[in-house]
Design goal:
Elements (H helix, E strand, L loop, with lengths): L11 H12 L3 H14 L4 E7 L5 E6 L9 H4 L26 H7 L2 E7 L6 E7 L2 E8 L4 E7 L6 H5 L4 H18 L4 E6 L2 E6 L5 H16 L1 E7 L2 E7 L12 E5 L2 E3 L2 H11 L11 E6 L5 E2 L10 E2 L2 H18 L16 H16 L38 H9 L7 H6 L19 E4 L3 E5 L3 E6 H18 L5 E11 L2 H9 L1 H6 L3 E5 L3 E8 L7 H13 L7 H16 L9 H9 L17 E5 H7 L4
The protein binds adenosine-5'-diphosphate (ADP) and magnesium ion.
The site of magnesium ion has 5 residues, from helix 2.
């Protein structure tokens, strides 16, 4: 008896829609693919026009080679390409495209119009396609080159359309794609028009620095150090900013290989190593790295959007980038930036010592051995740095770890260490402020929950969690006010299962998360990869935190302002990072906590409105004991 098969071959359009999902995730992916094609066409002038973040319209016009009329339908056919012929060509890719997938994928999920004319033809030809179906095809007038118009992206994939973000978010992503292509091809003139307004007009230039300057401004451009090296078949052209321009996230590091923007952990690592010791360990250098190699030595066919490549010899790339940048940094005589407090006299001899040590750090890969460190640990450390044992970061102990050395060298005067700034011992010669009547003299911990202390006025009882949470919140708020939170790159990204809605949330709030020191991206169809995490949360497990955070983001009341969201999230971070009720604290930790108490002195409630401190005055006590 014949049975109906449960397994069926999917209809072609469904197959295409599935495939399109890999290449076309959002309007910016369409822009990327169309820009790639325009660059491949040999154009010298490319214009991108978008409306409503690309949701309504994306139009890319080039003056390149054009597509012959009889080939227009071929161009939108899956796996049809003019760029490779056989599998051997896969290892000699000179073009941006080669998969023959983009136009087919886009035309499966949008309304597309192509107008194109080759140099040989007298007139242009136009086709209109909707969900793969050619709706019209006729001759028309247009100059040589190609215009591809994409309207109503995902009109036939409602689930995807629903998850597109606000026009401004989508425009942000498009801007990023535009920037990447325009940086890779300075000799091509580019234009970006957003809702009828020209936002970028970039003339062709043989000078990469000039193009960088257009995007990032003359100030950064003039600060760049230039590295050019051609060794062992690796041509490197790099623009790196001095450590003074460091950023809180690595998002200012761009890598291009053979004209393609890629993410590459080997290059990223080399850049980080080159900057090591020159800036705070948690900061990131600004670096634009352009690499040219023989296409045979890379595999670009490892990712549908070609954002990753595989190197034949990744160690060679790593060592070329690292040694070239190191050399540049050494020649540039980068003096580490000091941020001493005005009242701290800087001893020139010590400063010299520090410079020498930094130079040494640069020269050697191996960590400095303790014996080579200056006898006092190299610090400008005020005596108070010894007292802040709780953070585990400071103190004058000698360390063989360059990161710790850095901290020892620079932390004591860094205003981001509030204990030192506020709770530290007075500098010699500075007036000693009188003890506040509320300042606890010493404290004991009770029930691993409360700190009880004597003050001049009586007794205070502190809720250790509430106080610490409050202090953290204040510190985080201060830092956010002046920039982003310090972020720490995870050695291996943490992946977390997520729904489409959660992935969309991550994307929608990418900028906000970046401000908080979190970098997370989609990972496959059902996960999120967390790449960076706030340094302050280093003791916290990433997945549960991110899940909580997503819950909060998903449940924001309509119309919540970014500011409110940030403070809500800071509140959550402070709560998670703070010591808990039930944690046993060491004497040093108790002392550190009390030292920072004045930070929240003015209001003694935790962010949730709970009090942090109860006060019992001597008068209260006397009254209770009927001493009056
Ligand atoms: P791929 O770029 O991988 O070849 P696409 O689907 O992006 O695949 O494009 C299919 C083909 O259409 C290209 O190989 C090219 O021949 C042609 N084509 C697409 N866009 C342009 C353009 N702007 N100018 C000239 N030819 C184009
Ligand atoms: Mg293409």
């Amino acid at each position: 008896m014949s049975q109906e098969s449960k397994i069926k071959v999917l209809p072609p359009l469904v197959v295409r829609k599935i495939a399109a999902g890999e290449v076309v995730e959002r309007p910016a992916s369409v822009v990327k693919e169309l820009l790639d094609n325009a660059v491949d066409s040999g154009a010298t002038h490319i214009t991108v026009e978008i409306k409503s973040g690309g949701k309504e319209l994306i139009r890319v016009t080039d003056n390149g080679c054009g597509i012959a009329a009889h080939e227009l339908t071929l161009a939108i056919t899956p796996h049809a390409t003019s760029k490779i012929v056989d599998d051997n060509d896969l290892f000699a890719i000179q073009s941006m495209g080669f998969r023959g997938e983009a136009l087919a994928s886009i035309s499966a999920v949008a309304r597309m119009k192509i107008v194109s004319r080759t140099a040989e033809d007298d007139e242009a030809h136009e086709i209109q396609v909707e969900a793969e179906e050619v709706k019209s095809s006729h001759a028309t007038g247009a100059p040589p080159g190609t215009t591809i118009e994409v309207r109503d992206l995902f009109f036939n994939v409602p689930a995807r359309r629903a998850f597109l973000r606000t026009p401004s978010t989508e425009t942000g992503h498009i801007n990023e794609q535009f920037t990447r292509t325009a940086l890779a091809y300075p000799s091509v003139a580019f234009e970006l028009i957003n809702n009828g307004r020209t936002t970028h007009q970039l003339p062709a230039s043989e000078n990469r620095l000039e193009r960088l300057s257009r995007f990032y401004g003359p100030e950064l451009a003039s600060a760049f150090m230039h590295t050019e090296r051609n060794e062992r078949d690796v041509y490197l052209d790099a623009y790196t900013a001095p450590p003074t321009h460091s950023r809180a996230t690595p998002s200012w590091q761009y890598t291009f290989v053979n004209g393609r923007f890629i993410r590459d952990r080997f290059v990223q690592h080399a850049v980080r190593e080159a900057y090591r010791g020159l800036m705070e360990p948690k900061r990131h250098g600004v670096a634009f790295i352009f690499i040219q190699v023989d296409p045979k030595t890379i595999d670009v066919n490892v990712h549908p959007t070609k954002i990753e490549i595989r190197w034949q010899d990744s160690r060679l790339i790593h060592s070329q980038v690292l040694s070239a940048l190191r050399e540049t940094f050494q020649q540039a005589d980068l003096t580490p930036t000091f941020r001493p407090q005005p009242q701290t006299p800087v001893d020139p001899a010590q400063q010299q010592q520090v410079r020498e040590q930094m130079a040494q750090l640069l020269k050697q890969t191996a960590p400095i051995v303790p014996g080579q460190s200056p006898p006092n640990g190299g610090g400008f450390g005020s005596p108070s740095s010894d007292r802040f044992g709780a953070s585990g970061q400071m103190g004058s102990h000698q360390s063989s770890n360059p990161v710790e050395q850095w901290e020892a060298l620079y932390r004591p005067n860094d205003s981001q260490q509030p204990t030192n700034e506020y709770g530290g011992s007075p500098q010699p010669g500075m007036p000693v402020s009188p003890l506040s009547p509320d300042q606890p003299h010493r404290a004991i911990q009770l029930h691993n929950m409360y700190l009880v202390s004597e003050t001049e006025e009586g007794i205070i009882i502190i809720d250790q969690h509430a106080l610490h949470e409050r202090i953290m919140y204040e510190q985080l708020r201060d830092r956010i006010a002046t920039g982003s939170l310090e972020s720490q790159r995870l050695l291996l990204p943490e992946t977390i299962q997520a729904t489409e809605a959660q992935m969309a949330l991550i994307e929608e709030h990418a900028q906000l998360l970046e401000k908080l020191g979190i970098e997370a991206t989609r990972f496959g169809d059902d996960s999120i990869a967390v790449h960076s995490f706030p340094a302050i949360l280093k003791t916290i497990e990433v997945p549960p935190f991110i899940t909580d955070l997503l819950d909060r983001l998903a449940n924001l009341p309509a119309g919540t302002t970014t500011e409110v969201v940030i403070h809500d999230l800071l509140d959550m971070m402070a709560c998670k990072a703070a010591v808990k009720a039930g944690d046993t604290l060491t004497d040093v930790e108790i002392e550190a906590l009390l030292e920072q108490r004045h930070l929240v002195e003015k209001s003694s409630s935790c962010p949730h409105g709970r009090p942090t401190t109860l006060r019992l005055s001597k008068a209260d006590l006397n009254k209770q004991f009927k001493r009056t």
